[in-house]
Design brief:
CATH topology of the largest domain: D-Maltodextrin-Binding Protein, domain 2
Largest sheet: 9 strands, mixed
CATH superfamily of the largest domain: Periplasmic binding protein-like II
CATH class of the largest domain: Alpha Beta
Helix content: 25-40%
Shape: globular
Number of strands: 12
CATH architecture of the largest domain: 3-Layer(aba) Sandwich
Radius of gyration: 19 Å
Number of domains: 2
């Protein structure tokens, strides 16, 4: 993750994690359940074009998001098809405190990834009209290839094997890997301490290759999702959980039984928005990302989500679009 205006290095990411972890240890929130049933998400407001999730600062960012010109939509087949359908079909998650969380009061998603999807819908349709499908790490490419969704926004790391199957717009965010252990654990304090330990990571995620390179003597246990990985740490089924720091930070908001140890490590993961190679969605979404970065919407969304929940004081900056080689 890049967190300073002066540097986009891994050192900047480490400074963010140190400050954010300290802030997060004092916070607790209620977790929400998730379902795999695709469902529509309308505007939620009394006035057309107004999004209302019950989170005032967040809603203000979404409702002030830019709207694309009719000409720019007409010039792009992917966007034109969504405009004609009247809804943007999104794949994502709904249990990530910082990125995409289902709010039980409003039955709407809130978070950085969720906000990007809602802003993209507004950009195309002039309103937040989305149809949501729950994805997991192993099913994301499948949903794109089968045309079940128009795009996937789910802290989706841009990798060469994935780019062989799909396209990525972006990147729009960055993060390194971190280590999660029980609060009572005193033996694991760094990557070196993972040797000979059972270490969970999400199935098919970049956590697998990161562990293989950084901790080759660790016993890797692949589990379907974040919740199961955290539960495995709590139950003692595994000794640690390794995945992007941003996801681990999100988990600290709801769980007092775990902690993050050591410094962020491994390659910097760049998050992109997954789309099909069979259309020009990547081109249009990159235009959208540039628009919300240039007008300050990206930063406002970050402040209303990541900064608001973690208390981190450094100002984040988005990675350069196209910087991940996609």
């Amino acid at each position: 993750m890049k967190t300073t205006t002066s540097s986009r290095s891994a050192t900047g990411a480490r400074r963010f994690v140190t400050v954010a972890t300290a802030a997060l240890l004092a916070l607790t929130l209620s977790a929400c359940s998730s379902t795999g049933t695709p469902k529509p998400s309308g505007t939620g407001g009394a006035t057309a074009g107004t999004f209302n999730s019950g989170h005032a600062d967040y809603d203000a960012v979404i409702n002030a998001g830019p709207i694309a010109s009719a000409d720019s939509i007409a010039a792009n087949k992917w966007a034109s098809a969504i405009k004609s359908a009247g809804t943007l079909r999104l794949g994502g998650t709904q249990t990530s405190q910082l990125f995409s969380l289902l709010d039980p009061a409003s039955n709407k998603l809130v978070g950085f990834d969720a906000g990007l999807g809602q802003l993209l819908s507004r950009y195309i349709l002039g309103d937040v009209k989305t149809t949501f499908s729950l994805t997991t790490t192993p099913t994301r490419e499948q949903m794109i290839l089968s045309n079940t969704v128009d795009a996937v926004i789910a802290t989706y790391s841009i990798t060469a094997p994935r780019m062989e199957k799909i396209n990525f717009a972006g990147p729009y965010y960055q993060s390194q890997a971190g280590i999660l252990v029980k609060v009572s654990d005193t033996k694991i304090n760094s990557v070196a301490d993972l040797a000979g330990k059972k270490v969970a990571t999400q199935q098919g995620s970049t956590g697998v290759t990161t562990l293989q390179a950084a901790a080759p003597q660790a016993q890797i246990v692949e589990l379907p999702d974040d919740a199961q990985c955290v539960a495995a740490v709590e139950s003692g089924q595994v000794d640690a959980y390794v995945i992007d720091q941003t996801l681990l930070l999100s988990g600290l908001l709801t769980n007092k039984n775990v902690k993050i140890v050591g410094e962020p490590f491994g390659p910097v993961d760049a998050y992109g928005i997954g789309v099909s190679k069979d259309n020009d969605g990547k081109v249009f979404i990159n235009q959208f990302l540039k628009a919300i970065e240039d007008d300050g919407t990206w930063l406002k969304l970050w402040k209303a989500t990541v900064q608001a929940k973690t208390g981190v004081t450094q100002v984040a900056t988005p990675p350069a679009i196209g910087s991940a080689g996609n």
